[in-house]
Amino acid sequence: MATIHREIFVDADVDASWAALCDVGAIQERLARGFVVDTTLEGDHRTVTFAGGFVVRERLIARDDVRRRLAYAVVDNPEVRHHASFQVFPGDRGGSRIVWITDVAPDSAAPGFAGMIDTGVAAIRHTLGASRRE
Question: How many domains does the chain have?
Fold first, then answer.
């Protein structure tokens, strides 16, 4: 299983970043504008539509408000296993540091996911305010 690790520094404070991340039904508005274009919730599952029309169904695995951590997994593709988590930390000089870790199998799927994740990182920076401290 391959692991993709990204750290995102944004100007938004920790509470604002966590609130945007936890609004799991509105990531197209609050977290990753332009990367995600629609999200629908059905219990602990959400359907996410990305720019370009790619659609995935995810199961929300865990939400830890104390540690500001959210975990989810893609459930609609039996050929690819995907699990990811976000965690929000105070930035060293203000703002927030968001850690996004994605595990994916088979390893051959990792480059495609890494490209999507990098696009998502750019959208999160744009939506929450790119930090000048990176």
Answer: 1
